[in-house]
């Protein structure tokens, strides 16, 4: 049996050294040392030996087993190191190559215009406030002097969730909420930017767009104060030579009301295709706050008055940058957005 052990050891050395990978090595280990392996089979036959030979054969068998385990461990380490080296070679990074440049985003043109408008009005003493986009019918219409079935509602066809809950059609509800919260404190000077929703969708209208509402209430507010504020705003945004024109209009929540035009930013008021030869471009609506709106909100109209105005951020951006299609703002076309 000693000769068989030596022969097994010699053959096992060759098999272990020649194992090409870890899978083949594992098969060699099972063939030699497994429960039905060659060495295990030899050890089971020891009871057939004479008693005086068993110690010698057992001692040698243990030595062979230990040597086989050492050979297997050594070969396993070699194969693992070889596999790791091959993987590192295959996945090597060339650190001498230039890095990949990341394209950085930037502020959207509507945000640029909104921030510029906010800076102007903050400089004039106004505060920035916000309100909910999902609004109650009371704040969106009735508290603004637009009762149910009023014809003015047809101009602001919107998305109703229930009969009393809707997506707001303008930022004017914020002025009612602010007045309710502050009444009867004076003065009140706020602007309220935000998204609004109407059922429009074409080159000059969108179902969702941005407005900014302005409100000032104090004891001695006059229409001339409104004109001065709006002239300062227009000249800050469109240039120092910008002129204003006020045209009589109608809004249920202001009285008197006016549509406000600016001198054409393209031709300077001379007349061109953009202004249709008139020299003027419509920019916003404004007026003195209707007494009923102040009274509903808790203010005494015998001691205070106010003015309000509202403008579309997209409208300002289109005039400022010469954009002829509102949908470009929401199309996510990098060719368009990268210009700003």
Please give a structural write-up:
The structure is a single chain. This protein has 340 residues and is of the alpha+beta class. It folds into two domains: 2-90; 109-337, BirA Bifunctional Protein, domain 2 (2-Layer Sandwich), CATH 3.30.930.10. The chain has eleven helices and nine strands. The chain has a seven-stranded mixed β-sheet with strand order 1-4-5-9-8-7-6, with helices on both faces. Helix 2 (22-33) packs antiparallel against helix 4 and helix 5 (109-123) crosses helix 8 (223-238). The N and C termini lie far apart (90 Å).
Quick overview of this protein structure:
The chain is α+β, with helices and mostly antiparallel strands and 340 residues long. The protein has 11 helices and 9 strands.
The helix/strand class is: alpha+beta
How do the strands line up in the largest sheet? Answer: 1-4-5-9-8-7-6
Overall body shape? elongated
Helical content stands at 40-55%
Mean pLDDT: 87
CATH class descriptor of the largest domain = Alpha Beta
List segments where confidence is low: pLDDT < 50 over at least 5 consecutive residues: none
Q: How many distinct beta strands?
A: 9
Distance between the termini: 90 Å
Q: H/E series, N to C?
A: HHHHHEEHEHEEHEEEHEHH
Per DSSP, what share of the residues sits in E-state strands of 2 or more residues? 15-25%
- What do we call the CATH homologous superfamily of the largest domain? Bira Bifunctional Protein, Domain 2
CATH architecture of the largest domain: 2-Layer Sandwich
Radius of gyration from CA coordinates: 42 Å
Q: If you consult CATH, what is the topology of the largest domain?
A: BirA Bifunctional Protein, domain 2
Tally of individual domains: 2
Distinct helical segment count: 11
Characterize the main sheet.
Answer: 7 strands, mixed
């Amino acid at each position: 049996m000693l000769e068989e052990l030596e022969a097994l050891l010699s053959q096992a050395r060759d098999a272990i050294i020649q194992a090409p990978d870890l899978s083949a090595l594992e098969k060699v280990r099972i063939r030699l040392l497994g429960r039905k392996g060659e060495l295990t089979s030899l050890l089971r036959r020891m009871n057939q030996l004479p008693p005086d030979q068993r110690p010698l054969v057992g001692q040698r068998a243990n030595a062979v087993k230990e040597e086989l385990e050492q050979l297997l461990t050594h070969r396993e380490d070699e194969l693992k190191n070889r596999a790791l080296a091959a993987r590192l070679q295959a996945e090597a990074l060339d650190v001498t190559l230039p890095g990949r440049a990341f394209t950085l985003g930037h502020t959207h043109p509507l945000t640029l215009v909104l921030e510029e408008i906010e800076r102007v009005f903050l400089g004039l003493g106004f505060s920035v406030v916000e309100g909910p986009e999902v609004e109650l019918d009371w704040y969106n219409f009735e508290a603004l002097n637009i009762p149910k079935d009023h014809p003015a509602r047809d101009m602001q066809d919107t998305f109703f969730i229930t009969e009393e809950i809707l997506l707001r059609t303008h930022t004017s509800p914020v002025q009612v909420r602010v007045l309710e919260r502050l009444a009867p404190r004076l003065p009140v000077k706020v602007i309220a930017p935000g998204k609004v929703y109407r059922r429009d969708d074409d080159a000059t209208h969108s179902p969702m767009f941005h407005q900014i509402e302005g409100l000032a209430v104090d004891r001695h507010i006059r229409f001339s104060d409104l004109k001065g504020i709006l002239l300062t705003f227009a000249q800050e945004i469109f240039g120092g030579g910008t002129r204003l024109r006020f045209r009589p209009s109608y809004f249920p929540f202001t009285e008197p009301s006016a549509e406000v035009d600016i001198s054409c930013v393209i031709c300077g008021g001379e007349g061109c295709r953009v202004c249709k030869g008139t020299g003027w471009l419509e920019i916003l609506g404004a007026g003195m706050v209707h007494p009923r709106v102040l009274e509903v909100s808790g203010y005494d109209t015998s001691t205070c008055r106010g003015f309000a105005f509202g403008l579309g951020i997209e409208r300002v951006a289109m005039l400022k940058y010469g954009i002829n299609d509102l949908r470009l703002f929401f199309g996510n076309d990098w060719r368009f957005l990268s210009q700003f």
